[in-house]
Amino acid sequence: MRLEHAYWVWKSYFPKDFCEKIIAAAARQELKQGEVLRDATRQTRKSSVTWFGHRPENDWIRKPIDQCLRVTNRRFWKWAITEAEPIQFTKYTPGDFYDWHTDQRIKPYPEDSRWPGLVRKLSVTVTLSEGDAYEGGDFMLEDPRDTPDNAARRIKTLTEARAQGSVVVFASSLFHRVSEVTKGTRTSLVTWFLGPPFV
User: Fold this and answer.
1) What pTM does this model have?
2) Where exactly are the structural domains of the chain?
3) What pLDDT is stored for residue 38 in this prediction?
4) Which residues make Cβ contacts (< 8 Å) with residue 117, sequence separation at least 6?
5) Which end of the chain, N or C, is surrounded by fewer C-beta atoms within 10 Å?
């Protein structure tokens, strides 16, 4: 489907103290190697992750992100959103990256899953690091409003999303990536919002 807005960036949406508190909370948890289905050799992704699940003690993180999503969805898409997946904290150090991928599965979640019959509709990325705390690590995505033969315009590097506390909300079907970090540490949150299939 053609979208008037494939994505939206809220620059410096969350304050510094909120971002720093999340980084500190993640530091108290065990980080594990981020994984991608069908990528045993880790050619698609290299980064460390931990999770903030659906528990009352994580509401201080979950509720502001949910509110941001509701405002953005109401303004640009008005899609039926019924569920949200747990929040993933991601840490990128030099040599880490996440190559081109989409967040949306080819088919809805299976009936024996936690979200039977639902699909990922909107993805949210929150920048936690200061923009000058790392080099590389750019968040990039495709903008399908431009034609495939015009890659310079179709592939967007969202430099405005480097500012600490910035939020990118985008259609989960879009290809996106985080380029390799060459210096410093990049930290972020990601989560996915679900709803019934588009019909």
Assistant:
1) 0.93
2) 7-195
3) 57
4) 108, 109, 111, 196, 197
5) C
Q: How far apart are CA 132 and CA 136, in angstroms?
A: 10
Q: Which helix (H) or strand (E) is 191 found in, with range?
A: strand 186-195
* 15-20, long-range: CB < 8 A, 24+ apart: 15/165, 16/164, 16/165, 18/64, 18/165, 19/126, 19/127, 19/128, 19/129, 19/164, 19/165, 20/128
| Dihedral-angle region of residue 67 (phi above 0 means left; psi in -120 to 50 means alpha; beta otherwise) | alpha
CATH of domain 7-195: 2.60.120.620
For 112-166, where are the E strands, in sequence order?
119-127, 134-136, 139-142, 155-157
Q: Which helix (H) or strand (E) holds 190?
A: strand 186-195
Q: Kindly compute the dihedral angle of the four CA atoms of residues 6, 16, 189, 54, in this order, to the nearest 10 degrees.
A: -110
Q: Are 147 and 70 in contact (CB under 8 A)?
A: no
Which residue do the tokens 């705390």 mark? 133
Q: What is the pLDDT of residues 8-41, one digit of tens each?
A: 999 999 999 999 999 999 999 999 988 766 555 5
Calculate the CA dihedral of residues 168, 169, 170, 172 and round it to 10 degrees: 110
CA dist., res. 180 & res. 186, Å (int): 10
